[in-house]
Amino acid sequence: MASGTYHLVFETFLLQPYLSGYKPFDEAYQYLFNSYYETVGERHPRPQRGLLSRPPLEEVLAYREYVDKAMAQLLPTANTDIEAGVTIGLHHEMQHQELLVTDIKHALSLNPYALAVDDSTSLSAASDHKPAPREFVHFEGGLCFIGTDAQSEFAYDCEQPRHQVFVADFSLSDRLVTNAEWLEFIEDGGYERPKLWLSDGWATAQQEGWQAPLYWHRRNDHWYTLTHRRREPLDPNAPVCHISYYEADAFARWCGCRLPTEFEWEVAARTVALKGNLLESQHLLPQPAPSGHKGLKQMYGDAWEWTQSPFIPYPGFTTPEGALAEYNGKFMANQWVLRGGSCATAHQQMRATYRNFFYAHQRWQFTSLRLAK
Question: Which of 7, 11, 188, 270 has an alpha carbon 20 to 30 Å from 327's alpha carbon atom?
Answer without folding.
Answer: 270
